[in-house]
Amino acid sequence: MSIIITGASGHLGRSTAEMVLDRVPASEVVLTTRHPEELSDFAGRGAEVRRADFDRPDTLAGAFAGGERLLLISTDAVGSRVPQHRAAIEAARDAGVGHVAYTSYLNPVAENPAVVTPDHRETEEALRESGLAWIALRNAFYAEYQVPAGAQAVATGRLVHNNGDGRIAYVSREDCAAAAAAVLTGEADSDEGKAYDITGPEPLGQDDVAALLGEVSGRTVEAVAVDDEAFVEGLTAAGLPEPAARAIATYGRAIREGYLGEASGAVESLTGRPPRSLREVFEAHRGELLP
Ligand SMILES: NC(=O)c1ccc[n+]([C@@H]2O[C@H](COP(=O)([O-])OP(=O)(O)OC[C@H]3O[C@@H](n4cnc5c(N)ncnc54)[C@H](OP(=O)(O)O)[C@@H]3O)[C@@H](O)[C@H]2O)c1
After folding, report:
1. Ligand 1 contacts CB of residue 154 (under 6 A)
2. Is the Cβ atom of 288 under 6 angstroms away from ligand 1?
3. Does the pLDDT of residue 211 top 70, yes or no?
4. What percentage of the chain exceeds 90 in pLDDT?
5. Are residues 141 and 203 in contact, defined by beta-carbon separation less than 8 angstroms?
6. What CATH number corresponds to the domain at position 254?
7. What is the number of domains present in the chain?
8. With contact defined as beta carbons under 8 Å apart, do 278 and 200 qualify?
9. Centroid of chain to Cα 268
10. DSSP secondary structure string, 12-64?
């Protein structure tokens, strides 16, 4: 068996590679990346490291050769990554890869206003049309990404948001990696053509997040709901370019409009252990939360 992980030098790629290497012999693991030199530690442990860049489809046939199960990690080129993902899917099909797991995002329906939705929807469509056996791991927003915003809230006492009364079950990146590793190694009983919502244990509103920040930091933190325009103004006043601020505001809108509000049991059913809570992630990053 040969397991291939794309984008293996990223945060999720590295964590998944660690977990896969804990379970299968390194000789069965292939890690692809644009930066092979960054994976010399894994190469030293016996994994094969191959150069692959989705922007250079000529690199992909060799990179994916012999792969039986492949984790396609979505790239960070939001808005322009569908051709990258299509190139990877075509190369996987041409290389005879038996199974592809793709790191998607919750509820990628046309109406979901989050800026990342169209990329994931179109990539899932490309997988559906490819003839490959595949599954989508639809990751919720990472709990770790709430730490910088949380630190700002602890420093000011105000967690400013445009999420309204919406909720989301933030998921730790370690649990996303654990779910992917379980699918890749065949430990998980996963169904082809199915999408799994990879979420934390419970949907939380921003009042809950503010309360957690207060408890973990020992400071007073209040959630302050604003509308999209005021939220964008706050971000641009803090120095963010307006297009980036508007893109970020789409996440709060998607939460507010209820597109991301469900928690699922998929992490536990795939990995055999319950997902970490946002409190656990905040506690693990307590030092970063305190000014
Ligand atoms: N759920 C969430 O809250 C959330 C938040 C942020 C991002 N994401 C998505 O989840 C993915 C993994 O998260 P992460 O934390 O590991 O992100 P990250 O550390 O920023 O990693 C970026 C990833 O994109 C890959 N990549 C970029 N350009 C590529 C190209 N031309 N060809 C092949 N791969 C390319 C990188 O691979 P190499 O550098 O190894 O080539 C790397 O795996 C992100 O890329 C993004 O799509 C999800």
Report:
1. no
2. no
3. yes
4. 96
5. no
6. 3.90.25.10
7. 2
8. yes
9. 17
10. HHHHHHHHHHTTS-GGGEEEEES-GGGGHHHHHTT-EEEE--TT-GGGHHHHH
Q: Is residue 128 domain-shared with residue 156, that is, in the same domain?
A: no
State if residue 9 touches ligand 1 by the CB under 6 angstroms criterion. Answer: yes
pLDDT of residue 1: 63
Atom of ligand 1 nearest to the CA of 116: 47
Any ligand 1 atom below 6 A from CB of 286: no
Phi, psi of 8 (to 5 degrees): -75, -10
CA gap 25, 150 in Å, rounded = 40
Q: Is residue 80 situated within a structural domain?
A: yes
pLDDT category of residue 216 using cuts at 50, 70 and 90: very high
CA neighbor of 81 nearest in space, from 107, 58, 55: 55
Same-domain check for residues 47 and 103: yes
Ligand 1 centre from 169 Cα, in Å?
Answer: 21
Q: Is residue 175 part of a domain?
A: no
Same domain, residue pair 155 and 25: no
Q: What's the 55 CA to ligand 1 centre distance in angstroms? A: 14
Which atom of ligand 1 is least distant from the CA of 8?
A: 40
